[in-house]
Amino acid sequence: MAANNIEKSYVSCSSPGTNLYPNDTATNIQITREFNNYTSDLKQQYPDKFGFFASLPLPDIDAALLEIDRALDELNADGFVLLSNHWGLYHGDPKLAPVYEKLNERNSVIFIHPTIPCPKNAPGEITGTPRLDYVAPLMWAYQAPVIEFFFDAARTVSDLILTGTVQDYANVKWIIPHCGGVLPAVFERFLRTSSLLGPKVGSDRPAVPYTLANATALLEKQFWFDLAGFSMSSQIWSMSRFWGANKFLYGSDFAFTAAAGAIGLTGAMNETLPQLYNDTEIGWIFKGNAVSLLGG
Fold first, then answer.
1. Which of 64, 195, 236, 264 is least buried, going by the fewest C-beta atoms within 10 A?
2. Strand partners of residue 249
3. Quick check: 208 and 164 in contact, CB under 8 A?
């Protein structure tokens, strides 16, 4: 961190998360608690260097509610990390209402990390070719971070917006990684198409109509986007059409992106961001926005 001029890091559990066994809730809860205890201890030992986002044992709603209180009241979590789906439970699902009500009461920050897509009727095993072939047709050919992660992140953000979940829980703040995944390419299209077609017959989701202006303003209030990964060549340019420098956060994807790769990606930011923003705004992206959002 010191060698790369990083004052403070916020750590969290990436995909596949802490809920590894679809039929063993007790083990999932134990893994979640142990991970949260570890990251809390890291923050306690080095409070100026580390913060953390606690994991939740979703899709178990009752266990998640208990862990929210424990993470905030006992572990001093800075927010929560959720996967783009939890065994097919996407974030606009009405089953999550009790979780969002509590997170809204606690003015929580939620960081979403993508994972592989999961239809509700997918086989339960977390590993193995049959399940991966079932949930994503090209998983046999490409690793999940190549294609699927970016689509699943945009899928769950679309679900959050179109169901009205974001506006219903106005105290919740969201961080979306990888400069929104494919969101820049589909943002206007899914808003306009949903308004045109209306709700799907038989769906448990409401279809809240949005104009592009209304949805952009909603995300301006409640969303931030980290710049981890290869976000500079095209994504940042598209995102900058909708939101200003105050909505972007530095991200490294370390340690799944090795240190050398993270350094190279930071170099790309240093080359590209001055083409879009002034020095003050770049300072917001690298530090100021995170301090404002997370309290430093």
1. 264
2. 226
3. yes
- C-alpha 110/C-alpha 68 separation (Å) is 12
Place of tokens 């001055």: 274
What would the mean pLDDT of 271-296 be, rounded to a whole number?
Answer: 94
Provide the residue count of the chain.
296
| pTM > 0.85: yes or no | yes
Three-state secondary-structure class, residue 167: helix
Place of tokens 């969290």: 12
d(CA 32, CA 58): 10
The residues with which 90 forms a beta bridge, in sequence order, are: 85
> Residues with Cβ < 8 Å from 175, sequence gap 6 or more?
79, 109, 110, 111, 112, 223, 224, 225, 226, 249, 293
**Structure tokens belonging to residue 133:** 């072939």
Question: Strand pairing partners for 50?
Answer: 9
2-294: CATH topology: TIM Barrel (3.20.20)
The mean per-residue pLDDT over the stretch 20-44 comes to 94
